[in-house]
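Input structure tokens:
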């Protein structure tokens, strides 16, 4: 197993357990490039609007700049 695969699996494991820190003053998040953060900021209103009406809204882990609402890719 290569070092990259080991680190990837370790990162995945840490991130999957991050929800256990929900009620603490400590959090874990992915460090994203500025371009991706800027793209997410543009669609953030759609994200919160979807959540507000009870829909499932999330950003893809594989492609962090893509927003999905109710399992469908949301257009920018």
């Amino acid at each position: 197993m290569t070092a990259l695969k080991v680190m990837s699996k370790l990162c995945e494991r840490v991130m999957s357990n991050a929800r256990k820190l929900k009620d603490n003053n400590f959090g874990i998040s992915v460090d994203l490039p500025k371009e991706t953060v800027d793209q997410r900021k543009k669609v953030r209103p759609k994200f919160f609007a979807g959540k507000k009406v009870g829909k499932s809204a999330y950003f893809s882990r594989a492609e962090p700049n893509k927003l999905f609402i109710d399992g469908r890719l949301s257009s920018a």
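The longest strand covers residues 57-59. The longest helix spans residues 34-52.
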